[in-house]
Structures
1.
Amino acid sequence: MGDLMNHPHGETATPAQPASAKPPGPCSIVIFGAGGDLTKRLLMPALYNLANTGLTPEKFVLIGADIAKRSTDDWKASLHKTLESFIGDPNAEDQIKAIDEANWSKLAAHMSYVQGDFTDAGFYQSLKTELESLESQHGTGGNRLFYLAVADRFFGTIVEHLGAAGLVEHKGDEGAPWRRVVIEKPFGHSLDSAKALNAQVLAVLKEEQVYRIDHFLGKETVQNIMALRFGNGMFEPIWNRDRIDHVQITVAETVGVEGRGKFYEQTGALRDMVPNHVFQLLAMVTMEPPVGFKPEAIRAKKYDLFASIETLADDDAVRGQYGAGTVAGKPVIAYRDEPDVAKESAVETYVGMRLKINNWRWAGVPFYIRTGKHMTCRMTEIAIQFKKAPLAAFQDTSLETLPPNWLVLRIQPDEGIALQFEVKRPGQSMRLAPANMEFRYSDWFKPEPNVGYETLLYDCMIGDQTLFQRADMVEETWRVVQGVIDHWGSTTPADFPNYESGGAGPAASDALLSHDDRTRHWRPVSVPAKDDRA
Ligand code: BG6
């Protein structure tokens, strides 16, 4: 499309639109887990990118809290070093060409490090003293954002201590200082533990103070699903059970457990990816149009959607575990040989599922989802298959051979949207061939450095909860998968490992689709060559 319109960068073809984003009002951010990977590789680069676009507050305090004894200067230096290591690295989280030292120094001038043990009440007193002193120095008006970038076992404890120390008092009145807490995933390990954590958190905080984060919602392509569906009139009439045959959602990764064996043995692919990331993709595609774009209007529709997903039966789900193999040309070991993984581990690294949504729009439309590690390539896509033409009216073509139309939302990499349909093959006889219409983000918009946390952090600072999970949403998603978690927890599959690293997952996963309809298959796990998409 870019070529047709002769606008290699669509943005520059129309007069620049005024940027609607303004810097957030004064506030302090306190990051728990200041020395951790999430802070170094994602949160700080995101704050730095926000600073570069003028979207950090003028009056600002940034406190890093962690157990290690170190100085503020040492903390700043290590963050700067991580940022530097991204320069020129095509696999780095942030694609930066250089560090803007003036902007970095401006940001660094607001930073301070506080050492302490998150389970010790005394630590919260020193944090309070430091915070109050910096607040009056920088004039942040007492607005505070606490970011829990720590292992999930600390979530409840930190919130309780914040409450006991009087750090999160929040009246919610216009003009009164606000206090917010960002809680990372995993939010619970089961329905019961998610409910218990919600109860613990909500005993201290109001729901409007809680920002349960899912970083998939920070991806532009995920946010774009709402723009595509609700910013265009042409999709709505076909976005339902009348026209859609089924939907496939794939989150394929090439990475393995990457030294996270201990975490993964407790978690597995289902808990790690499904009730959170994959369900977020599902909700974006299937939720009803909201009555407006206010956060509560959108969250209400998402909640309705989660509440309509049928609780999974055991035979709606298939699990897999990777054996040894080759990924991206490199030999890799089996999951059971990874450090900190049991030799007989029953933990799954792949999940395939069939979901049913019991509402008027989707009744009878199966949603197939799969996610796995050590797969052929990295590919996250939502593929919508439309019902076939009712009749093959063309000579030499039978209904059997008429391929279906696909609308494919490519979330990552090679972000874009493709529509596949049939065209006449040039020649004297009427023969069909599949063709592809392509929208590629990179053809239309200049890529900006972005690690995916910028929008989420910005939204926390301005108090927009649209992209964050409400307590009831989280509980509904656990409700859907809990039965399968229980079943899998009590049995060890005899065939593990059952897929080769570098492959497309276990064979049993294909049966999920063919069982419903023998013409249904998973789409290939491969990123098509740029000019060869079909
Ligand atoms: C994390 C999971 O939440 O998401 C990881 O714990 C997974 O196991 C990651 O690899 C995927 O996120 P992204 O943004 O790299 O696709």
2.
Amino acid sequence: MRDRFNRNITYLRLSVTDLCNLRCVYCMPETGVHKKKHSDILSVEEIEEMARACVACGVKKIRVTGGEPLVRRGIEDICARLSAIDGVEELCMTTNGILLPKYAQKLKKAGVLRLNISLDTLNAEKYRAISRVGTLKDALNGIEAAKQAGFSDLKLNVVLMGGINDDEIRDFVRFAGEQSIEVRFIELMPIGECRTFDKKRFIESKKVLEATPELIEKCTEGVARIYSIPDSKGQVGLISPMSTHFCPGCNRIRITGDGKLKPCLHSSEEISLRGLHGEALKETIGDAMRNKPQRHHLDAKTPSESLRTMNAIGG
Ligand code: SAM
Ligand code: SF4
């Protein structure tokens, strides 16, 4: 379905929980979040019904996210239901990877086509400092488990933070080359927990090109500019929501774990889908798609208008 600005909305980011087994400093409060009542979180049936309605409105790609999607009980059943929907061409997931040794094969069997794994540092002490509770070894084991399960085109999501991990750009590029995977550097966005971060944490993705001038520009894929790494099968992707706002090409909508449709990540607008069925559900989703805001107005001094923290949206 095309919106008022002729953007074709084909991509749904679907959050299945706001809970997480990590507490990344830029995403989640240190104390975690209050566990919602079971009835406040979408049931498996509601998730499937909403996804089907989105597909009827033109969605072709679904990314399952969270919080951490792998802490949601029955995640493999949710994925199997989503991948079986007629019209879903790509089912993907973004995960911190910690639970992949347990779930990678099950996800493959459930029809998940691709995984993005978030990893902001290759240094064990920094990993603990950023995630507050996690262990680098567990995240690396998760990457290995994904490869073993046959997820060959893995992507690593690295949120770039000035003074925290920008000294590791070359290490990540080397890692991507060695592992024949894609590393995606994402500009930190002032939303939720990091709205009040020092300005020096918000750095532009062009810093990656300054640190690795040997990269060769290849193409644009969705919101990412892709570069190849010489003499390897690895790739680098730059995702620059701050320095090059990509709203004119945005094809996404989001549904939160409690059933709110967000037409734009950075707007406070949320449309409740719970309790709607059949044509009423499709009409509400279609209206929200058509009326998707034109753009966000974020910069390091103007934080997101979204009232949620990132774990409660899904990235
Ligand atoms: N728990 C999963 C994970 O970390 O991959 C999925 C949910 S997480 C909210 C999705 C993505 O959003 C992660 O790659 C995370 O690094 C990214 N993210 C969270 N807060 C962000 C921010 N303020 N700016 C840019 N990316 C952010
Ligand atoms: Fe959890 Fe992902 Fe947020 Fe980190 S970025 S706290 S892993 S939801």
